[in-house]
Amino acid sequence: MKKITSFAIIVLIATISTSVFSQNSDLKYKTVPNDPISARIYTLDNGLKVYMSVNPETPRIQTYIAVRVGGKNDPAETTGLAHYFEHLMFKGTKKFGTQDYAQEEPMLKEIEGLFEKYRNTEDDTQRRAIYKEIDSISYAASKLAIPNEYDKLMKTIGATGTNAYTGFDMTVYTENIPSNQIENWARIQSDRFQNNVIRGFHTELETVYEEKNMSLTRDSRKVYEKVLASLFPHHPYGKQTVLGTQEHLKNPSIINIKNYYKTYYVPNNMAICVAGDFDPDEMIKIIDTYFGEMKPNPSLPVIEPSAGQPITKPVETDVLGQEAENVTLGWRMGGWATPDKDMLDIISLIMNNGKAGLIDLNLLQQQKVLSAYSGAYSMADHCAFVMNATPKKGQTLEQVRDLLLGEVEKLKKGDFPQELITASINNMKLSEMYRIESNGGRANWFVNSFINGTEWANEVTRIDRIAKITKKQIVDFANEKFRNNYAVIYKREGKDPTELKIDKPQITPIATNRDAVSTFVKEIQDARVTPIEPVFLDFDKDMKILTAKSKIPVLYKQNVTNGIFSLIYVFDMGNNHDKALGTAFDYLKYLGTSTKSPEEIKANFYSLACSFNVFPGTERVYVMLDGLAENMGKALALFEELLADPQVNKEAFANLSADILKKRGDAKLNQGANFSKLTQYAAWGPDSPDNNILSEAELKSMDPQQLTTRIKSLNGFEHRIMYYGPENEKELLSTLNSLHNVPAKLKPVPETDRFKQLETNENKVLLAEYDAKQIYLGMVSNDGRLFDPKVEATRELYNEYFGGSMNAIVFQEMREARGLAYSANAYL
Fold this sequence. Notes:
The protein is α+β, with helices and mostly antiparallel strands. Helices cover 43% and strands 16% of the residues. It has 32 helices and 19 strands. The strands form 3 sheets. The chain has an 8-stranded mixed β-sheet, sandwiched between helices. Strands 14-15-19-16-18-17 form a 6-stranded mixed β-sheet, sandwiched between helices. Strands 9-13-10-12-11 form a 5-stranded mixed β-sheet, sandwiched between helices. A hairpin with a 3-residue loop joins β14 and β15.
């Protein structure tokens, strides 16, 4: 009781915010002191929430329209409904997506009735007859429809990122729009959310079937669903899935969909979240004009979360599938808006932060498992703390489980340094700085606050709250929550006996009516807006080219926004020049120097809130350092020390070699990885950049000294540097000249022209067998033409027209008209 009371006091203090009126408007909004994104939060008279953050850096606006409804709200007899209704929200309204709604409507109502008849009929022969009638009427109705006019509308106003997603707690619709198209965007979205029409239903349902079929061969999804089922048998999180059951997907109800839409897609259950370049007073007036007349639902259903029966012993479950074996552990926690969430955020970093967490140092750095991670599944009603690991060759899943549990015991005993907590808080602050750099990060922050029911003041003060959590409180929490009350999911290799593909009914391809345009779309196309004048990059004015020692060119741009820096060394040489480079820099992760252990190096970088990465590509190597600018000098000195003085560790290399071979074997069990290799083979033949790797024999015979030699010699090759950060030119050059370890004269990079793409002189069919419910299909052709900047604009235009969007020919034919694919695209 004491803990709850303390948290309530914190919340009460944190939620003190200011209410003010917009200029030239009687609409009130709330603000929070010390808010890094200066958010305004409005609530319209009908209950619609509007979150705003102004960021004038680019003339665009990220928009999310969030609805507080998702898979947990699906009717028990038609699970998957929230997800497939998300798909149907792209089908248009009474005003667009149709040539004549008055003629179309009677047929849509007839289809609705036939689907009810279909779902209530058990005889297979009768069902096929009913579906044939559905197909026939759907084809007739399609002659009046205009598929993907919504996408055409978004292209008309210059929107990008047109998409949506559904989770257990939310359905969110996303657009990134130019700042001069606010009114057109609001007009379209207002019509879309108030006047949705369910059309093209049976072909869109085929798309949902394909998405379900995809999930059946993704073992990670099956594990995720089993974790939730084991932890939350009392809650929809565990009772049903977002994609729904196969049986329910085969028996949909348009009547249930309409009732769902009427119940939940209401203003008092929605939020508009925007961040970007706009006048907030004008923005709220436009939103109020177009959304203010939406009618709220005073009887909005609410799922009250319950604690459920305590878990008193481990709940063990096996999942079978073709992909690599792994083990997952999960513990039940309180929801997003409870004190558990703050604790989970800091514990997640203590356990696994990519550098110096308990899992990072004790399991990954020590090479005790092939891979491992931990973190929170954060949801509104309940959260879960989850750990996962993949075994090395010869390890059992039970052994890996015990290694994970061993790290939990260290957490419970307080077997971690106080400095790890301090460093984690600093890295949280860094992550927040990265998040608010982008409009997407800001707007998504709003979405999380709305969906999970947290006051904005609590979001703004989150890190300050967590910073006050003591080590003793963390240990006490761990001992209270992490007992034998966990779920353990063993993902084993084998045939899943429950895996049944959804059969596809016969469908007549619907009419696509590509040349038809609704009156509504014409009005949007003809709407006059103030043009945004483009601002083109001027290399002479917008950035500078400096020269560091050894005549190294430095591309410089000062960051005047925040205290983050990014420093990149670029070498025009890669794996095509030396196939051992990738292995060398994988090896670097496990090496220390003559004065520092690998663990000390990782801990030092984490305490500095800085990161280093080396990315050896086929043609280039990128050496990257980024993080808090105030610590750049210390981080650069540490990184340069590691590059100059890596110490050979033969045991680490033996482990690395074994792990590389195990990962290659595991990749062969993955459908996507198999398809990727097949595509590379089609483009390059057997001698390809993708296969330019050290063989098993080469790995086993290699002296690791050869790899450290490659690491040490990298800085001796010609390269250039790119910098973005707060340091001025003089400070940066001083830092580089004193810390960047290079010889006076750099060596030229080696040349290579070994790999050539195959020209396509004849038709071939390449097959890679994989037992799955869905195929991956690709077509590759190369006529030998090289890149030509003169045709680049035409190429991009053609790609957009033919295969680059939902309104493109390939997408319309494959998905919209025939329901043959979940995704379909083409490009030159």
